[in-house]
Write a structure and sequence with these properties.
By secondary structure, this protein is mainly α. The protein has 2 domains: 54 residues, Arc Repressor Mutant, subunit A (Orthogonal Bundle), CATH 1.10.10; 150 residues, Tetracycline Repressor, domain 2, CATH 1.10.357.10. Helices cover 76% and strands 0% of the residues. Helix 4 packs parallel to helix 7 and helix 7 packs across helix 8. The protein is globular, with a radius of gyration of 19 Å. It starts with a helix and ends with a helix.
């Protein structure tokens, strides 16, 4: 391995080190209360080193969100092209994928949903913003393919598949954000799974051709 390749590998490892530290801090404190200094401390690096890799806290947080979107898309690609199951079964696999991601790291997922509707996007570099748009588009395309397949199979109503995909994603984000907000009042139980099960049951029935 040459010097350039080794430096590139070390740079990528350092970037992953920073992102893992950020994930822990964001998950523990939330985006608003977390600081770059705390992330640097968690990573056992100087704050100056963090800024060599990420322009600001928003960009670091967005990189975690991009990772979550990439993971969701990778999990969906495991079943969206399978021919042995129909679109309705794939919808339930979508729900399972969404729930698994929530259980892995709810705070990063919640921050992703806030990111998509907040002012954070204005503080991103063009490069990171383009990457976010690309990964968001790939995730939506995977969901759209399930909706489109359901329409082609005569299972779902003949509505625009992108609109159906938007409804699926909005249901997911809405349930997670709403139930999480209720946990501020009662932190004893997490009702996301039960609520998401009901939401998808109602949604799939609503998509079906009567």
């Amino acid at each position: 391995m040459g010097i350039h390749e080794r430096k590139q590998r070390e740079k990528e490892q350092r970037r992953k080190q920073i992102m893992e530290a950020a994930r822990k801090v964001f998950s523990a404190k939330g985006f608003s209360r977390a600081t770059m200094e705390e992330i640097a401390g968690q990573a056992e690096l100087s704050p100056g080193t963090i800024y060599l890799y990420f322009k600001n806290k928003e960009e670091l947080h967005t990189s975690l969100s991009i990772n979550i979107l990439e993971y969701i898309t990778a999990q969906m690609k495991k079943f969206i092209n399978r021919d042995d199951i129909d679109a309705e079964a794939k919808m339930h696999l979508l729900k399972d994928t969404f729930m698994n991601v929530y259980e892995y790291d709810p705070m990063v997922l919640i921050n992703l949903f806030h990111l998509q509707s907040g002012e954070t996007l204005q503080n991103l570099s063009d490069e990171v913003l383009d990457e976010l748009k690309q990964t968001s588009s790939e995730a939506l395309s995977a969901i759209t393919s399930v909706a489109n397949e359901g329409i082609s199979q005569g299972i779902f109503v003949a509505k625009h598949p992108v609109a159906l995909a938007d409804i699926i994603w909005a249901t997911y984000s809405g349930v997670v954000l709403w139930v999480d907000s209720k946990r501020l009042l009662n932190n004893e139980k997490d009702f996301v799974k039960q609520t998401l099960d009901i939401a998808f049951e109602i949604m799939v029935n609503g998509f079906k051709v009567k």
